[in-house]
Amino acid sequence: MKKLTAALAALAVPALLAGPMALASSAEDHTELMATLGELNDSGGSGTVWAKVTGNEVWLSMEVEGLLDGAPHAQHIHIGGTNSCPDPSQKGTGPGGAIRTTDAVDSYGPVAVSLTTDGGMTHPDHALDVANFPATGSYTYERTFTVSDEVAAQIGAGDGVVVVHGVDHDGSGTYDGDQMSDLDPSLPTEATDPALCGTLDLAPMAAPSGGVQTGGASSEGLEQPALLVSGALLAAVGAAGLLARRRARD
Amino acid sequence: MSHHQEGRDRRVPALPGAWASVLLVAGMAMAACGVTAQVPAPPAPQVATPAPSPSADGSSSAAHTVPAPSVRPPQALPETEAGQTAYPELEASRPVEVRLPSIGVTSRLHSLGLSPDGTLQVPTGALVDQAAWYSGSPTPGEPGPTVVEGHVTGPGGRPSVFFALGEVATGDRIEVDREDGRTVAYEVYRVERFAKDDFPTVAVYGPTEGPELRVITCGGAFDEAVGHHVDNVVVFARVLSPGG
């Protein structure tokens, strides 16, 4: 029986990882949002964001490529201003006219959520918790966190803007330079200047998770619905068990 | 969720524990993509080739009436002063048929939703060889991407409805009939193959400027260990005209 339990738990884990609504029977009670991250300050980066808001809970998944490697990238959901990204050609107060974070506050407003990694806090007060942000040039990020009613409503209305920071303007391979950050005078401005920005827009659909298993069918359809139903039941049982264990731990 | 443990040939399912869960997960997704040795590999899209070249096996169909992309301007789309296309958008009406003349495919469409694990359901049973519309996605002509999917191979490994999807090229025309009698025409602007474990959710299912279409199947390497193709072929197309 232990092996069966292990199998059930293993089944339940991918279902839980697929998002907070993966176990719900309908997609009606959550809001999905997506962002395509465009580069600011010629950072050379790109990325995408996929988020689901369910009540006060936000699940957010993010893929980023092409930023400075080996350096922390503070990342946030901003809310305010015109809920938009600045024109990348806007002249800022940074080196060579680079856009610094405060230069574009009219576009995206202040930090509402700090997208720290596990262990970090997500409150705006932790916006520069450098030890708890991704620190590679390309990364995937996924986290579920709780926000206030107001912030949940704003994100759900499409008001959120995701900004990723950290640009190596001079190509030295590290955050340096004479000018210090407009956010924290102990850091070079390169460490906090915005590198990527994207608006969290309402998704046109409840997006399926992962790829599509449309390779073909090895057998006729009759046994597959049965397998599907039993699989779903097993996943539900396993998930219930996992949740119970989590509750017991908390 | 790695399905690629060691790549050993494991056909006898006397496997408890993690292997059982792998099999069950595959079962949940109805992912039994059987391919036999008799069937040649499905065509792969021409990844990262900007200039269109003839398809590998010379499958020039008589139905291929679509000229090269460079000589084919979008039709019936008014241009705004800013040079942006003002896309005609339609009220919702369920799609009932899809046609890809460049690969000689015409299929009725049925509706499918999400499985309990959040993945897209796939055609089964009597409808296994019919293409399907993801009922959570916009209907053709509504803003956003309309999602159509179909198998690459069917029971026994024979070719299914989208076996040749990888041969679709940029500039090809795709048409979708709606329940209200309108036909929406699209022009393909991108054909790509993605690993299922690196599927670009936002690019495929995310917001678009106007009505678009995604046609999805799988191709590429067949993974014996998990029993299905490890890649999805995705065709991206933009609306040409809402038709009448």
From TrEMBL, chain A:
Comp. bias intervals (Polar residues): 81-92
Annotated signal peptide: 1-18
UniProt domain CHRD: residue ranges: 41-170
Chain intervals for the UniProt region annotation (Disordered): 81-103
BP-aspect Gene Ontology terms: superoxide metabolic process
GO molecular function: metal ion binding
InterPro entries recorded: CHRD (IPR010895), SOD-like_Cu/Zn_dom_sf (IPR036423)
Transmembrane segments: 226-244
UniProt keywords, alphabetically: Membrane, Signal, Transmembrane, Transmembrane helix
One Pfam family matching this protein: CHRD
Family assignment from sequence similarity: Belongs to the Cu-Zn superoxide dismutase family.
Protein name as annotated: CHRD domain-containing protein
Automatic annotation (TrEMBL), chain B:
Keywords assigned: Hydrolase, Signal
CDD domains named among the record's database cross-references: Sortase_F (cd05829)
Region entry Disordered, spans: 43-93
Keyword Transferase appears in the UniProt entry: no
InterPro entries in the cross-refs: Sortase (IPR005754), Sortase_dom-sf (IPR023365), Sortase_F (IPR042001)
Signal peptide: 1-31
Protein name, as recorded: Class F sortase
Organism: Ornithinimicrobium tianjinense
Lineage, top ranks: Bacteria, Bacillati, Actinomycetota, Actinomycetes, Micrococcales
